[in-house]
Design a protein that fits this description.
The chain has about 325 residues and is of the alpha/beta class. About 30% of the residues lie in helices and about 20% in strands. Strands 6-14-13-8-9-10-11-7 form an eight-stranded mixed beta sheet. The longest helix has 16 residues.
């Protein structure tokens, strides 16, 4: 797995819109605030042409969105490629991305989550390049906590590699209370992964077998409630996605209330999986979030119901 070079200021961020663009008064205001904050910190911002566009759930045509993403990723003058937003139909750009070319390119950090799983996941499984499953640039020091925003930059600088949950809330573990796991981190949002199943772009099972099962699969959700998540996990289990992994890390759910009186803990227990599940982790669609490096080797621990993740970027 290729880990992109860590940054030194000054450096350049290329802002892309591979799914949604920045649209609506609140989102534009957030983006402008985040941009000015990053400029003050020593970053130069370069924007793709489609950033302020949003029509029919996309910033541009699938082909043009892919073209902009490829252009910024392959541009040696750009150090970081950061998505401006999530979205709904980023999957439509996949046929226009050249992962063979990306595999040969100089690796650089891509940052995004949610619909950006459509790039983070195949970037790891096809091009063998790590990326950051984390806040979009529009959320930087706006919706996201100052601390979690600062931690993202500290990770990019290789100044911080160990992260502990921000909120004083319990992290759940099945089947036991305390646990230590290690392996290559891979995953994304269930909304995208279930959509990509059995396509040429996903390859989680092949990735896990190639790493001899030393893999931790992280999953989170936007649209799914507790029973929706249970259905997705059942589907993945039946399709063999859990056969060659050490465990599952499940992000805190956006729709987390019990559904038909079924709690998340009950739903997960009902699955009777043979591997441990760590759940209510701060990754995905709730704030604040820990940056998850898709493809990196990690050591994960839950002790006294608190979650910690440590990156080992030198692991071969």
């Amino acid at each position: 797995m290729k880990i992109p070079a860590f940054i030194k200021l000054p450096c350049t961020i290329g802002v892309v819109a591979p799914s949604f663009g920045v649209s609506g008064e609140r989102y534009i205001a957030n983006y402008e605030k985040a941009k000015q904050e990053l400029i003050k910190e020593g970053f130069t911002i370069v924007e793709c042409k489609s950033i302020y566009q949003l029509e029919k759930a996309q910033s541009n045509t699938p082909k043009n969105r892919a073209k902009e993403l490829m252009k910024f990723y392959l541009d040696d003058k750009i150090d970081i490629v950061w998505s401006c937003a999530g979205g709904e139909i980023m999957n439509e750009i996949l046929p226009y991305l050249d992962f063979k070319l990306l595999k040969q390119a100089k690796p650089k950090w891509f940052i995004g989550y949610s619909d950006n799983s459509n790039f983070c996941l195949p970037l790891a499984t096809h091009a063998h390049i790590a990326s950051i499953y984390g806040m979009t640039i529009t959320e930087y020091k706006t919706d996201q906590w100052i601390e979690s925003s600062n931690d993202l930059i500290a990770l990019l600088k290789n100044e911080k590699t160990v992260f502990t949950q921000y909120l004083d809330e319990d992290t759940g573990v099945l089947p036991r209370k305390n646990i230590k796991l290690e392996g290559y981190l891979i995953g994304g949002t269930l909304d995208v992964i279930t959509n990509l199943m059995e396509t040429e772009y996903e390859k989680i099972r092949e990735f896990s077998k190639g790493k001899k099962g030393k893999v931790l699969l992280f999953l989170e959700a936007y649209d799914y409630n507790i029973l929706g998540v249970k259905r997705c996990l059942w589907q993945l289990n039946q399709a063999g996605y859990f056969n060659h992994i050490q465990g599952i890390i499940l992000g805190k759910l956006r729709i987390s209330d019990p559904y038909f009186d079924v709690t998340l803990d009950e739903a997960l227990k009902d699955l009777k999986l043979s591997i441990p599940i760590i759940y209510d982790v701060e990754v995905g669609h709730t704030y604040p979030t820990i940056p998850f490096v898709n493809g990196a080797y990690v050591n994960v621990e839950v002790k006294n119901k608190r979650f910690t993740i440590a990156y080992d970027f030198k692991h071969k």
